[in-house]
Design brief:
Layout (H helix, E strand, L loop, with lengths): L2 E3 L10 H5 L5 E3 L4 E3 L19 E3 L9 H12 L13 H8 L2
Antiparallel strand pairs: 1-4, 2-3
Bound molecules: FE3-S4 cluster (F3S).
Amino acid sequence: MTHVVTENCSQCRFTDCAVTCPVQCFHGDGERLYIDPEVCIDCNACIPACPVQAIREEFHLTPEQEHWREINAERAKDLPVISAKQQPLPTAEARRAELGF
Ligand code: F3S
């Protein structure tokens, strides 16, 4: 099993999740982060760290979120590991408010 970064990460990219990961399974581009399912150990540490609840356990994905499982697996392969806190995107606070968090 794995955890999956879903749609709420887009326009946010807060990166609080990455610093909680004991196995460095987060990878990122300029838009968002992705979890490598081959590395994630399902420790759950990242879930409460995300201010916009973007991360879900794979068995809690809704049907509309299922596609994020493959996107995370594919994108994580090609992108660098992110394990330190970075500046959120300039749109992050507005997006957080829009999402109701
Ligand atoms: Fe994205 Fe939340 Fe992490 S917005 S970068 S999943 S803390």
